[in-house]
Amino acid sequence: MLHEFSYLAPRERKDLLQLLKKHSGQARLLAGGTDLLCDIRLGTDKPAYLIDVKHIPEMQGITWSERDGLAIGATVTCIEIMRHPVIAKKFPLLAHAAGHIGSAQLRNRATIGGNLCTASPCADLGCSSLALGARVELASVRGTRVIPMKEFFTGVKATQLKDDEVVQRVLYPAEAAGAAWGMEKLKRIKGHDLAVVSVAIARTATWLRVGIGSCAPTPVVTADLPPQATAAAVVAAAFKVVNPIDDVRASRDFRLFMVEEFIRKLLPALA
Amino acid sequence: MNTKHTVAVTVNGKKYTREVVGHRTLLRFLREDLGLTGTKEGCGAGECGACTVILNGKTVNSCLVLAPEADGATIETVEGEAKNGKLSNLQEAFHRNHGVQCGFCTPGMLMSVKALLKEHPKPTVDQIKEAIEGNFCRCTGYQQIIESVLDATGQLKPKTEEMRRV
Amino acid sequence: MFENIPHEELKVVGKGIERIDTVEKLTGAALYTGDWVVPGMLHAKVKRSPHAKARIKRIDTSKAEKLPGVHAVLTGKELDYRVGLYLVDKHILAKDVVRHFGEAVAAVAAETPAIAQQAVDLIQVDYEVMEPVLEPKSAAKKGAPLVHPDLGTYEYVKEVFTPIPGTNIANHTKLRKGDVEKGFKEADVIVEREYTNPNVQHVPMETHVAIGQWLLGDRISIITSAQSPFTVRNLFAHSFKIPHCNIRVYIPSVGGGFGGKAGIHLEPLCCVLSRQAGGRPVKIQATREEEFSLLPCRSGLVYHIKTGVKKNGKIVAQQMTMYWDAGAYADYAVNVTRASGYSAAGPYEIPNAWVDAYTVYTNKPFGTAYRGFGHVEFSWGLERHMDLCARTLGMDPLKFRLANTLKPGSVTLTGEVITEHTGNVGRCLEEVAKAIGYGKLTPAEKAREKKTGMKIGKAVVALHKAPAMPPFTGTVVILKMNEDGTVTANLSLTEIGAGTYTSIVQIIAEALGFPVEKVRLPIENDTDRDPYDWQTVASKGLLLSGNAAILAAHDLLGKAYEVAAQVLRANPCDLDHDDEKVFLRHHPAKCVTFKAMAVGYAYPDGNAIGGPLVGVGRYVAQGLSNLDKETGQGNPALDWTYGAHGLVVEAHPRTGEYNIIKVASAFDVGKVINVKSVRGQIIGGMLQGLGTAMCEGYRYAPDGRLLNPNFTDNKIPTSLDLPEEIDCIAVETPQIDGPFGARGVGEHSMIAIGAALGNALQNAVGADLTHLPIRQEDVWRALPKGGKGPEGKIP
Ligand SMILES: Cc1cc2nc3c(=O)[nH]c(=O)nc-3n(C[C@H](O)[C@H](O)[C@H](O)COP(=O)(O)OP(=O)(O)OC[C@H]3O[C@@H](n4cnc5c(N)ncnc54)[C@H](O)[C@@H]3O)c2cc1C
Ligand code: FES
Ligand code: FES
Q: Which residues line ligand 2 (CB under 6 A)?
């Protein structure tokens, strides 16, 4: 059951940003609602206003250019990512990651912006986007700024977002297009589940990066490694950025084991 | 503070307009405001799929959609499946193959399968399993549901549904 | 009854006809309790304890009471009623102390669920948190902190149960057969080990929900999602000392039960709230989270088995000690303990046996009946143990099992002698072994191993279960002929999804010689209108109600024949009938239609005979007895359904990842009544059992908080979790007193499948597991060379 709140659905970006400023601290942005409405239902979040961001043109759509790379509007859903021809061709890792979030019903609603802003350590578009060197475009009445996704995540379910800011788009550099890739997600059942451990690898002619989920307070990524790095070197780099805990889903030991296992399995098979 | 919203929707081809509060979920809107209680709640948290409806052509968990978000939408629910006093082909197949036990997952299950069949008129077993992954069924073990879908699409091999007796 | 009619001669029984309840369910028209709205209805919410054990120092409800729209606020203080079926140990709302995480301490009824929730949030409870007892073996020791210091004062069923006041032991079931000491001395090898299971949630897709109304003059009306209308009524009447005839329980469609909706749950709470609210009806629907800890789960089990075996593979003695982790209230768990106590050795003959089964109170959510009634839990340990015994002897586990299975002439733990009609467990084992290609890998399987780097393992397990019910359990079916010669049936078994109603209709149709279209069995139950049934539990429904249905059909036909004999001026023994009429066997044209007799046969001048046709069939279990409290000897089993599973798994020798390639299951069902229903029960239960085996189970913090009361962290199997291949086999050894020879099979498919997985995994990759569930991490940890963390260095 949901507590009482007001639902607002601005149609224009400036209205959205004004509303957000006006209700700063009391409002939450509503995208697909698959995280937010769950939190509200459990009473862990009790905002007075929900501001729907799905009607804002600047936060919609997927664009690609050789110069600017790929830009995904924050309200783009998993299913749109999965089915977009440019993404399928140039960023198949993203299509794969989006395709393994929740169930079909969930993917029809869940957005990339929501996935990143929830900033759960297990966010599947977190570790995969990190591996691709993504950046996040933030907007507020004060203007627009772009920061590396690596800096966007600051702690368990915490980001750099200010109270008056929205994620407008997620940007992927053109040089990451066509990167060889591989991703593994450890689940407790074969059906839909949050990642117990996830490992996403991307490799171009100049670098290799591993994004890792559910093994630190946020999704994390290794430093840029040379594309020919050995498995041992990649594992070593991964172990520098992870620090998993024991919890109800798995133990620290097992998570570390699976990080290594996945890296060793994926590396020789990057496609 | 709680503003009212006018929500106009087309559900199973019929138009409805209602005033609702912002925090009304689509699930409660359908069940309590429109009286369409076929759609069920199994968790309220996006996990079980009992509340699945088709919203503008796509399946969604209606427990995680706000009614005002659906303003202007076209919605399909279990109540729209049988037409002119006759079960649909899909319902007939569930009936024949014992694709239903307690029936609580059935309304959502039918919606997920309906959406699948629109895209894949002759789905493989793997496609069926993936399409209903988000619809928990605690009774059937899914097998007779999968067979129902195969039957509805003319793919059930004769006798596969039978059992050996010794 | 009618046990020897071959399938070819049966018109309806044995066929896979469509279920009688699916059209409503497929169109959304079927009404479940949650769909019901009663005029004036209020909505209730409960305040629940965040602590596993605490003294309630003070509850301040004043703010909640003042909230507009609130009609009733209650705490345990105002309610001095205890409820319980076997052991009356639970208050409706916690009184003075809370005994488990999630226990209800206060409740509110208000005009909307939102107001009720707001009011609940305004209730302040001061707790003095205490140290909980969480582990059943230590809780059973003398001197452990007591969960129920007043155990000695509780009412309980004295003929059957033995609570030990001053301890946490709510019941001690004993079984003594032969001389175990002597047996162990004769044994060549002694194999001893302990196996454990956590609490598990039933997870019906429909959570518990009830609407209660308490009117002036103590007239009670309840609409509820329950398995057993008469048990709800009976327990309600006992707790509140109200005549049974004042209480009406109505049960519409039920969205799954699995034992979790047997007994009485939310009904008393919504009724006392209604009374407090001046008689307005009150609805309460559990959230999914509440389903995990406000409502009951399945008890945990620690099972210690010591087995003496001869070199030739014969078991000569077995000592079994069970610690059932009942949680905070042991009402149902005492009977789980009893029923699994006398079954604890599985379908094997043990000449010298000793069982001590303890129901132990702990500060955890409480256990109740769950599909299999203890057998899923103990079969995990027992069937793992059978493999361990075989391995210790160097004998093939299938051969070892076959050497020890119950056969005609064998004597069960309680002293019952098995006959050739009891069922054939050996046959079940052989069938599943054949179905999975037991004992070797096929070329295709070897190729698969090569390709995947996984190892394939196979295993078979056997199982049995009899209904756990009082020896005097009885039931009634009433058949009422309608004006047009069709028939409407009434009974109080509930259709919770298992398909029993369709089978009963088939039985009625067969016994009447009518087509199924002429027999209606309404899905709803109503204690004011329907005749008595004890409970919809224990896989006893088909047998008992099926027999009652046959007797009712005979009674109805007998009454019709009486009238027809008069009309036709014939001797009843010369009459026969079809689905339209009763006729003279040797002059079929001389007949009288059922339609003409349905509500009384009227002669052309209007003068009538007979009156409306009604058939009544009463059936009570035959030849059963209570068990001796010291030795456990007696006759508890209405029927034994035997079964076996064969399972093929592939597992990764380094990571522990595994996939179930095939499950073959065989059950001696006596006679198949509806082939598709039997298959539905076999597969549905098998997957539910695999849920227990693979991923389900409660996990607690050290302070007793439940860490996974939701689907996010208590996963249940989805469509993608099905085994790649499923094979179902029905063995048919007719049950002499079963309807057309049938036995129940509702629970059995869940039993022992966990051990099949454990054994197959051990055969595949050597992981030797003793705890359920088996997650990938658990296999990894148990690998002979695994579970040691990553190879890379962690800085
Ligand atoms: C059953 C279930 C299964 C799931 N499985 C997975 C899974 O497998 N993998 C996975 O990664 N996740 C999973 N999730 C989590 C969730 O679905 C995803 O994180 C999803 O992408 C969230 O997107 P949304 O649009 O629904 O977000 P919302 O719920 O709408 O929003 C989430 C948060 O982000 C904020 N927000 C949304 N958009 C913006 C924006 N543009 N700017 C700033 N803030 C914003 C909101 O205010 C809110 O705090 C699952 C959830 C459920 C319920
Ligand atoms: S009720 Fe919506 S997903 Fe369970
Ligand atoms: S039929 Fe009961 S949950 Fe699917």
A: B 41-44, 46-51, 61, 63
